[in-house]
Design brief:
By secondary structure, the chain is mainly α. The protein has helices spanning 2-12, 14-26, 28-32, 34-43.
Length: 61
């Protein structure tokens, strides 16, 4: 499960941990929603594909 990976990422990456903790304290909705928390860690990890939700657009001549 990604929960274990997320835990490891937070232990190893102090910048990610700091950003995560700041968001926990500043966003009440985020603090109450574990799914949003995991999504935040995933999107800020090396596992997230930068091309996610991008569609290739081609022009045919």
């Amino acid at each position: 499960m990604f929960e274990e990976v997320a835990e490891k990422l937070l232990k190893e990456n102090t910048a990610l941990k700091t950003a995560f903790e700041e968001k926990l304290t500043s966003d009440e909705k985020f603090a109450k929603n574990p799914r949003l928390q995991l999504d935040f860690i995933y999107k800020n990890s090396p596992y997230y594909e930068k091309a996610h939700l991008r569609l290739p657009i081609f022009k045919v001549f």
